[in-house]
């Protein structure tokens, strides 16, 4: 891919897990790895986030962490408040310093995902209804969504896209809270990953290409 992020998207007002305003343009000069997520997902998002975090850790171990920002951006604007995102980020300890969890207004986040082509559909919650792992509040809806990871270069140009859920391999850990929150399908995704699931080495391969620097852990599985 070779498509510059338009200014109207780069400057959409977002908010991080600490309540601080930001936007994608704030990370200009760094490559970006962006994942669409909701913290109350029970099938794929905990796996995607675990892979994203492990990719960040591996990059840090190679001394390249300052060159990339990892972004988890919610698709669930009602329930994924900054407090919820902060708690979610805290589960993946130690949270990499170059990883942020973002939300924003309905118009801003919807515009971002529409531009990037992420499918989101509100559907009925299952029976019996699940509860929020942080608050214990009963859930009243669910969101069907596509799973993608987007890569932008340091100039804000979209260069690569990986589709599919995360394939959790040895060395990558899903936090206990999230692992126990997975439903039957989520547990199946964890224990017997689909062949088209994306791996940490694949993420590192893309970042190696973007940074034009070798990353030892890239391409190892």
Automatic annotation (TrEMBL):
InterPro entries: SCO1/SenC, Thioredoxin-like_sf. Pfam families: SCO1-SenC (PF02630). Keywords: Copper, Disulfide bond, Metal-binding. CDD domains: SCO. The keyword Transferase does not apply. SUPFAM superfamilies: Thioredoxin-like (SSF52833). Transmembrane segments: none annotated. Cu cation binds at residues 41, 45. Disulfide bonds join 41-45. This is SCO family protein.
């Amino acid at each position: 891919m070779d498509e510059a992020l338009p200014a109207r998207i780069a400057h959409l007002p977002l908010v991080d897990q600490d309540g601080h305003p930001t936007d994608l343009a704030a990370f200009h000069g760094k490559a970006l790895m962006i994942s669409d997520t909701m913290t109350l997902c029970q099938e794929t998002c905990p796996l995607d986030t675990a892979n994203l975090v492990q990719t960040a850790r591996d990059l840090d171990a190679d001394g390249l962490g300052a060159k990339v920002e990892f972004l988890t951006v919610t698709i669930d604007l009602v329930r994924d408040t900054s407090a919820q995102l902060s708690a979610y980020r805290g589960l993946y300890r130690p949270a990499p310093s170059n990883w942020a969890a973002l939300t924003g207004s309905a118009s801003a986040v919807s515009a971002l995902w529409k531009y990037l082509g992420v499918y989101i559909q509100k559907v009925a919650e299952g029976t019996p209804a699940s509860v929020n792992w942080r608050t214990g509040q009963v859930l009243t809806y669910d969101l069907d969504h596509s799973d993608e990871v987007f890569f932008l270069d340091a100039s804000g140009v979209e260069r690569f896209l990986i589709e599919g859920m995360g394939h959790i391999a040895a060395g990558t850990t899903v936090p206990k809270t999230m692992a126990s929150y997975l439903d039957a399908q989520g547990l199946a995704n964890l224990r017997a990953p689909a062949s088209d699931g994306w791996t940490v080495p694949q993420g590192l391969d893309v970042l190696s290409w973007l940074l034009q620097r070798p990353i030892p852990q890239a391409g190892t599985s």
